[in-house]
Design a protein that fits this description.
The complex is a heterodimer. By secondary structure, chain A is of the alpha+beta class. Helix content of chain A is about 50%, strand content about 15%. Chain B is globular. At the A-B interface, helix 2 and helix 3 of A face helix 2 and helix 3 of B.
């Protein structure tokens, strides 16, 4: 028959795809078979014949391979699988059985594409959300800081009875460095904006003024040049040198190698570039470049009485933060005795570097994590329910298998394999989705979440996601695996499907209860945050933020080396600003409200007895030019604004807010009184006006006493501008630059932004938390409703026979309806009670982040269960009504 | 292979049953068996080389078939391997057909054949 003495090469190649046992015996025969089949299909004249042959061969080869994997010698002829009957004796675990479970599961998925798709999507979203949030948590909280031995790194900050966050003085830090016994080294650091001139246009960069030890103890290394020597940063001596960050070098100087030795004009003085740090080096306080502390913008930085810097330290091995704290506090007490006669209560606070960087973000991340875990749990419960429903429809199949000798372990294993496969597939999809999720999260996350590590899914993230997938699979698979295989042989074989327990605490009800309870918790937390957000939005700032543009600038101290020059610049610039078209009014202010800048001062009001500065009450202290109140539309309640004749040399004047006036002189007139400000040196000012209180630092703060001093009388090189505009403030940015540059074209201006954006920024972190948590809560509500509906539908279906009998015996539709609703109501009520208890606990946890809302806010704690109860009852009512409407004859015949 | 009781091999897989049926008519080589099975079952049972030779291997092991040796060159292709039933194979086929007949008889008694299947009876 064959035209060829030997089969063609292609056929021989194809024959090689078959299992070895067949090839050994029949290689040539099979190749000939394939040859014949190809020839016949060609002769049949079917143009697609080749595809048919290919398809047949592929399928055939796969079947043979599968068969050869299953078979153990001797190979019987009778059907081993379900071809003829489900005759199969299951053994305890074997690879064969496992592969078969996988095959069954795949077949099962193919048979139920809708279920499989829904389950996969739900799981992928649930695990994806968790994976994304965990990636973020990993990067922020788990990965160690990118420095050698990061556990030894600490911050050293100023502290007293009321604050542990303020600055310390550089001389104190130097003494701490010299006298301590617990630190390997201590360094000085302080970031501040630096004017960079000499380029196309004046610019501002973030400089970190450091001691050589600060960079050394962080382990900074360079790609070019070197970092500072001790001599270069020595206070009182020092060199005018600068180290650039890798990013600055790349962005501003194109990565040119000849940058070393070049001179940059920083704050008006030439600094020689001596090094560029490696790309991976990141300052804990983001900085563009590092300058020696000796190049500080003001001599005041070297004064023991002016806290202007903070410290970074590396503990010696074996010493804890507490050891360091004790050591340094003792030295601070010595210093107070030596320099302040022992009556200065200032000390230092030593804090773990990582903790002080990320501590604030932990809460947000934990709330977020709680929300995604809850959503995943709810999703698990839903899939578990679907599996349970399916398990009960497979009760007969399971019973038959059990009757044929399958032991329960095998049946449980098979059901679990199915769930685990779903979960792992969902997990893989989830990790992929999570990578998109993380990008989204980072974009919307409040800016106060410091991301220290890499946002890539490292082995920890992958391990977490995989473990989560497995856990998820067991969680949603277990109820079906264990209750579904608890076979009742006789009952099941009698073709009765209504044998499932109908008690209150069957598996399904427990699942629904936990699902609804979780929903209540999530919705309640979302509700609390939403209510908190509403009260935040109702906060009166005390000023009108609309149509105000703000900006900051700092004059270089080298160029403006006396107050005359500074005053000259300030006056001219303000005149030009006010004269610019479209400007309604303009003023200087030391600290724009909600910009993050603020200053305070201990004071002694007229009529108070003398108190030491560290015991004196403190007030916010803000220097302003005249027309500040007009520009901000802060009401002047008594007295007057600053005037043109409040100048240097005339009596120092001040304006206080109403809180200050009421606190210092309750029931008296404030205007005309004097206040002694405990500055260095002390300054006595006369109050000329009283104004309304505003939110200076955050929206959520209690309004505090605030004292405004005259900008003219307290001239300085740093100031901010506020400018009320006729139109869109953002469109006036150019006019602002032009006005300043017309006075000095080398002067950089930064943080040009509308006042409204500052108000929005203050709300944004809360707003983001609220929207993320609300989104999760709504998802939970949706999943929960679907869950209740599914379970009730199924329960009703199971009881349709009972309902049929009841109705046949004369029960009215409403009676049947109420019977079903009652059982639904029971489940929902239990769930709501548990849920509210959980919600109260969760409320306590988030209490610190709520504004003007109690953790058990009645509106939330009543509203949420009512809403959820209504939705859940609707989900019960729909299937109940369907059950009550059916013709009893149909139901009974159906059996 | 030790000889088993013919009953222990029942029921047969469709592939095994069809191969036995074809070979009941006489010796065949592999591709001819596959083609005849396909024709006999109106294209319902199509066997690829793996299914065919996998079955042949197991059937030879169980002594249902044997390869024909010293066969005269009937069609000038001595390289092809021909197979035929053993007496044991014929016995197994008879038993399987008897079993199937019994099943058919039950079905007939229940009037499941001939008349169209009643709807909704599962």
């Amino acid at each position: 028959m064959s035209d060829h003495p030997r089969p063609t090469r292609l056929s021989r190649l194809l024959a090689r795809c078959y299992p070895r046992e067949l090839r050994e015996e029949y290689a040539d025969e099979m190749a000939r078979f394939i040859d014949d089949a190809r020839r016949d299909s060609r002769n049949a004249g079917n143009p697609f014949g080749a595809f048919g042959v290919a398809a047949t061969l592929t399928r055939d080869a796969l079947v043979s391979l599968a068969a050869s994997m299953r078979h153990d010698a001797p190979r019987p002829l009778r059907s081993r699988t379900s071809d003829v009957l489900l005759v199969k004796t299951f053994r305890s675990f074997s690879m064969e059985a496992f592969l078969q479970d996988i095959k069954y599961a795949l077949r099962g998925f193919a048979r139920r594409p809708a279920f499989t798709a829904v389950a996969l999507i739900t799981l992928a979203l649930g695990i994806g959300g968790n994976s994304a949030v965990f990636t973020l948590i990993n990067a922020v909280l788990l990965q160690s800081l990118p420095y050698p031995n990061p556990d030894q790194l600490v911050y050293i900050r100023g502290a007293n009875e009321t604050s542990k966050q303020h600055l310390v003085s550089a001389p104190d830090l130097l003494d701490l460095r010299a006298r301590n016994r617990t630190f390997q080294d201590i360094g000085i650091a302080r970031t501040q904006s630096v004017n960079l001139t000499g380029g196309d246009r004046p610019d501002r960069v973030i400089g970190n003024f450091v001691s050589a030890s600060a960079l050394a103890l962080l382990g900074a290394t360079t790609v070019l040049g070197r970092t500072f020597t001790e001599e270069e940063t020595r206070i009182g001596a020092g060199e005018q040198v600068v180290v650039l960050s890798y990013a600055t070098w790349q962005a501003r100087y194109g990565g040119r190698a000849d940058i070393i030795g070049q001179k940059l004009m920083l704050n008006g003085r030439p600094h020689t570039v001596i090094g560029v740090t490696v790309a991976s080096f990141q300052d804990p306080t983001p900085s563009d470049l590092w300058l020696p502390i000796s190049s500080a913008p003001s001599r005041g930085w070297f004064d023991r009485n002016s806290p202007t810097v903070f410290g970074v330290g590396r503990l010696k091995p074996g010493f804890t933060v507490a050891d360091g704290q004790k050591d340094l506090a003792a030295i601070m007490a010595q210093l107070a005795a030596e320099y302040h006669g022992g009556n200065l209560k200032e000390t230092v606070a030593v804090s773990d570097m990582r903790e002080s960087m990320v501590g604030g973000a932990r809460f947000t991340l934990m709330v977020l994590f709680g929300a995604v875990v809850a959503v995943l749990l709810i999703a698990c419960v839903n899939i578990a329910n679907l599996q349970l429903v399916r398990a009960s429809t497979r009760q007969r199949e399971m019973s038959i298998r059990a009757a044929m000798g399958a032991n329960r372990t095998r049946l449980v294993a098979q059901t679990l394999v199915e769930s685990l496969m779903l979960a792992v597939a969902g997990g893989v999809l989830g990790v992929i989705i999570g990578q998109f999720g993380i990008k989204f999260l980072v974009r919307v996350m409040p800016g106060n979440v410091p991301i220290l590590g890499a946002l890539e899914p490292d082995s920890r993230v992958l391990a977490f996601s995989f473990a989560l997938a497995l856990l998820t699979g067991v969680l949603f698979g277990a109820p079906a695996a264990f209750s579904g295989t608890r076979t009742n042989l006789q009952g099941a074989l009698r073709m009765r499907t209504d044998t499932t327990s109908t008690g209150r605490f069957n598996v399904r009800n427990v699942l629904v209860i936990s699902e609804l309870a979780l929903c209540v918790v999530l919705l309640a937390v979302a509700g609390l945050f939403t209510r908190s957000m509403q009260s935040l939005q109702r906060i009166e700032t005390g000023f009108n933020a609309e149509q105000v543009l703000t900006a900051e600038f700092r004059l270089p101290a080298v160029k403006y080396d006396d107050n005359l020059k500074i005053r000259q610049f300030m006056r001219t610039a303000l005149e030009r600003l006010r004269a610019a078209p479209g400007v309604v009014s303009a003023a200087y202010v030391g600290a724009v409200p909600l910009s993050g800048n603020y200053d305070n001062v201990p004071y002694l009001a007229q009529g108070q007895t003398d108190i030491a500065p560290d015991k004196a009450p403190r007030s916010l202290f803000t220097t302003i030019s005249n027309q500040y109140f007009r520009t901000m539309q802060i009401p002047v309640l008594a007295g007057r604004d600053f005037q043109a004749d409040d100048v240097m040399g005339s009596e120092p004047v001040a304006i206080v807010n109403k809180i200050f006036a009421d606190k210092a002189w309750p029931g008296e007139t404030a205007v005309g009184k004097t206040v002694r400000l405990q500055l260095q040196p002390a300054l006595t000012v006369r109050i000329v006006g009283v104004v309304g209180a505003i939110k200076q630092y955050t929206l959520t703060e209690e309004t505090q006493p605030q004292l405004y001093a005259s900008h003219e009388q307290n001239i300085g090189i740093f100031t901010s501008v506020v400018m009320r505009t006729a139109g869109d403030p953002n469109a006036m940015s150019r006019a602002l630059h032009d006005a300043i540059w017309s006075v000095d074209r080398d002067q950089p201006i930064w943080k040009v932004r509308s006042l409204q954006s500052l108000v929005d920024r203050d709300l944004s972190s809360t707003r983001v938390s609220v929207s993320i948590i609300s989104a999760f809560a709504l998802l939970a509500l949706l999943l929960g409703t679907i869950g209740v509906y599914g379970v009730m539908s199924f329960a009703v279906q199971l009881r349709s026979r009972e309902m049929g009998i009841r109705m046949a015996l004369g029960a009215r539709t409403t009676q049947v309806l109420s019977l079903i609703m009652r059982s639904g109501l029971e489940v929902v009520t239990i769930a709501l009670i548990i849920g509210v208890a959980g919600a109260m606990a969760a409320g306590k946890f988030v209490q610190s982040r709520l504004y003007n809302i109690g953790p058990s806010d009645p509106a939330t704690m009543l509203g949420v269960p009512l809403l959820l109860g209504a939705v859940a009852l609707l989900a019960c009512w729909l299937p109940a009504r369907r059950a009550a409407r059916v013709d009893p004859a149909v139901t009974l015949r159906g059996e | 292979m030790s000889k088993k009781s013919p009953e222990s091999l029942l029921p047969l897989t469709p592939a095994v049953l069809h191969i036995l049926l074809v070979l009941a008519d006489g010796e065949r080589h592999g591709y001819a068996i596959a083609q005849e099975v396909e024709a006999m079952s109106d294209g319902q049972v199509r066997m690829g080389p793996g299914t065919l030779y996998g079955s042949i291997l197991r059937m030879t092991d169980s002594d249902l078939l044997e390869e024909v040796t010293g066969r005269p060159k009937a069609d000038g292709d001595e390289r092809r391997r021909y197979y035929r039933l053993t007496p044991f194979g014929r016995q197994v086929l008879t038993l399987e057909l008897a079993r199937l007949t019994a099943v058919m008889n039950v079905a007939r008694r229940k009037q499941l054949l001939g008349a169209p299947l009643a709807e909704g009876t599962a």
